[in-house]
Amino acid sequence: MPQTLERLRAITLADIHEARTRIAKTIVRTPLLRFEMGPDYPDILLKLENLQPTNSYKLRGAVNCRGDVVRRRPTLGVWTISAGNAGQGIAYAARQAGVSCAVIVIETAPASKIERMRALGARLIPVPYAVAWKALGDRAFPGVDGTFVHPFDDHNFIAGHATMGLEIFEDARMPSLSSPPSAAVD
After folding, report:
1. In this structure, what is the dihedral angle of CA atoms 69, 72, 73, 79, given to the nearest 10 degrees?
2. In which band, very low, low, confident or very high, does the pLDDT at 18 lie, cut at 50, 70 and 90?
3. Is the Cβ–Cβ distance between 117 and 103 less than 8 Å?
């Protein structure tokens, strides 16, 4: 049975600060590095989210959702729809919370991401893209119970991702980042 959508609301700076507090013990504060191409090129900064335990920023949103999910319906676990990164994040967060996780996985997902979700304890249900897209719209899938965590249309998921923005803002203002490096690194 399709679920009713939550009313859309803006992500506030307070939401992002609260998310940062909730996820602080799980995520890695990843570095912000300058990508040097020379004086005739724009200033490029790289936020290395590939250093997260799941190699993706999606862990931030998943961990931010964890507490809310466990509080609402802990015995039923969680489920999501993913081709990889969101599924890995939700599976990782669910494993840490001690709840079950199911992922409706798009059958064309990369094998490495499928194996990682499985290794994190997710029960995988492979489906064609069109079936996954319908389940996203319905926020329901036959035979799957638990709390649905939408992989991109969830207030807490987005607020968790937005914590990157706080880190970028703070790190980009640091004098050590804005001045040229003192020595070349090979």
Report:
1. -30
2. very high
3. yes
First to last CA, the chain: 57
This prediction has a pTM of 0.84
Residue 131's contacts (CB-CB under 8 Å, 6 or more residues apart) are 104
Give the C-alpha distances (Å, rounded to integers) separating 175 from 46, 167, 170.
Answer: 16, 15, 11
Q: Which residue do the tokens 């899938």 mark?
A: 141
Distance from C-alpha of 88 to C-alpha of 86, rounded to nearest angstrom = 5
CA distance 77 to 31: 33
Residue given tokens 């590939």 in the structure block: 50
Q: What Å distances lie between residue 141 and 1, 65, 86, CA to CA?
A: 8, 20, 17
Question: Which residues pair with residue 123 across a beta bridge?
Answer: 102
Which positions ≥6 away from 5 have C-beta within 8 Å?
Answer: 139
110-148 pLDDT tens trace: 999 999 999 999 999 999 999 999 999 999 999 998 889
